[in-house]
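ERR on first pass: missing label on line 2. Operator R.T. fixed the label and resubmitted. Corrected input:
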Amino acid sequence: MEIDNKKYPPGSYPDLPPPPGTIGVIGWLKNNLFSSINNSLLTIISIYLVYLLVDGAINWFVLDAVFDANDKPSCRKIGDGACWAVITRRVDQFIYGFYPHLERWRVDLTFVMLFIAAAPLLYPELVLRKYLLWFSGIYPFIAFILIKGGFFGLELIDTNLFGGAMLTLIIGVTSIACSLPLGIVLALGRQSNLRLVKVLSVCFIEFMRGVPLITLLFVASTMLNYFLPPGTNFNLLVRVIIMMTFFSAAYIAEVIRGGIQAIPKGQYEAADAIGLTYWQTTRFITLPQALKISIPGIVNTFIGLYKDTTLVVIIGLLDPLGIGRAALADTKWNGLSTETYLFVALIFFISCFAMSRYSLWLEKKLSTDHK
Amino acid sequence: MAQKKENKVIEINAMHKWFGTFHVLKNINLEVLQGERIVICGPSGSGKSTLIRCINRLEAHQKGDIVVNGIELSGDLKNLEAIRSDVGMVFQSFNLFPHLSVLENCTLAPIWVRGMPKKDAESLAMEYLTRVKIPEQSSKFPGQLSGGQQQRVAIARALCMKPQIMLFDEPTSALDPEMIKEVLDTMIELADTGMTMLVVTHEMGFAKKVADRVIFMDEGEIIEQNTPKVFFTKPKNERTKLFLSQILNH
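pass 2 clean. output:
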């Protein structure tokens, strides 16, 4: 499309569409995949390699896979793909651990209610949010009563029986929910002008960050007994959750401190100048901005925490990884570690990927720069 | 021109301030009457911004006293917020809250400092946003506005607290030339309402038009002060002459 320059007097040149083939799918293909002969060759070779890989994977994962069998040898007789029977035969253990069969509806109910309780916290524009937030507030108590029992005629279940994905969720969700507020308090404490508050926050943060989580878990499982008065029975699961919370709160605190320090000094001056108090400034100016900046770091820490829950295997709690290892120790399934660990990985990937997508969504939603 | 009452809203007596060991303000004596419009000018680093920041105690002075609205500013002041809320401030870099909409920027302090119901605060904010001529932007975020618009929002935000005194710290220095005028026009309109104003600026046109008094500062001292007419035509001090020749004939 040639347009004669002379046709238009200065200042009246029209907006023209870009030349064809430079935008859209065709333009993208041309620019990125087939920009030269060499690149076109590479593209074709790559497509072939991807095809080989995907084809093999589909065969192993699905087409040649065995989904039910009594043991590994019979698996191998049926097909030469993956032997998912090791999972399907124990899928309830992977989910509930050793929670009594007849009481598992309590876990299911708690799990469903988790979404109802989390929704108003995660989606600020939800309908009826005000009322649902009340539910979020009492949810921890409902969840405790339902899962642990001992009230309203519900059978009391020993936490030793907790396991599988349910245990991961209990430890992960509780620690995440507790470590964010604690981390905020620590971050503010570290920035405080009050000397004692500052020193205490710094000591806590530096100690927690300075030791490996695994040692904290060992402390939780063994050493705390020495410090507590004899005869105190302090539940191991609770101790683990407290340690996990402290550990990630220290990281969260540092992430949020980074966010606080990224806020320009002018924001505080403006807040001072219109007469806001320290707490009003913190609530309306500092935290909303600091938390927004820190979202990627906070979610990063949460994902790390969630995956670190697998460490509880070492102190004898049976999370999905523990269940998987128990399955592998069974002579019937010996040697199916690929299938088992892939499945455990999948369980964690679902949760972590969801967290990651949520954080991207939230970042976009809170962005006020170019709306 | 609004009627001027003869009561002093700001009294500064033999005030000194140091940044570390650097003596940034030296023996400042200044009285401001209600409704008076004062322009403070001087080379950069002369302490003019620091002076007006001392008036709402964004900076603390170490010697002498500052009395604002009859209350002396000192270290053991309990209700500093109350005093600050009577003194509005407009900054060079606007300092709007980027995570809040224009309207929320304006209603935050009236609601939480003044305890105003949200609805009243919003209609008050809209009134001032109309006065600075951007009511249609009220639901946008600061980042979506031009510099001049942001500064006008900042002025509206300060006015929503119904302050007795307005401080302007180089309000047009961060703006493109074409936006300086819209902000200055807003300030001139504000001056016409009889607001007490202290303005640190290099806009000498504004000083000539609006100021009751022009103060020239250099190296932490008030060198000279006079009505704009005398100040610009017959400056007494050599340093004032040099400064004026530099900024008027470029």
